[in-house]
Amino acid sequence: MTGTTESGPAPAPTASLDTAPLDLAMLEEMRAAMRPGAFGAVLDVFVSDTRQRLATARLAVGRGDGPALAAECHSLKSTLGSFGATAAAALARRLEDAAAQDAAAAGPLLDRLEAASGTVLDELLARFSATPGGGGG
Fold this sequence. Notes:
InterPro entries: HPT_dom_sf (IPR036641), Sig_transdc_His_kin_Hpt_dom (IPR008207). By secondary structure, this protein is an all-alpha fold. Helices cover about 70% and strands about 5% of the residues. The chain has helices spanning about 15-20, 25-35, 40-65, 65-80, 85-100, 105-130, and strands at about 5, 10. The longest helix has 26 residues, at about 40-65.
């Protein structure tokens, strides 16, 4: 009975729930294409930028500022996707869409994005910042 539950049809799987936090093959390809040490520097910027954008998004939710929330989520969607974090990028896209409806009520979705992004950042730092040659490069 695939596709059903006791209460009816099963919900369709979503990228935010069914994919690994990171596309490691894509990240290794990105790292290999860079000069030694460059990936670590790019990673540092990505981590810092992601944390800042999440904090700014949280402030936007608190103010009920849909346009500011949408702008932060748009940027997060792009950068998370560029780093192979497809599930977190999908959450950012959903939050970007929700911002236009009711930014103040978007807190629970932002909670999920913060958790997913935290997992991504933790895994990136664990896998790449401790590698020899200056931070994964």
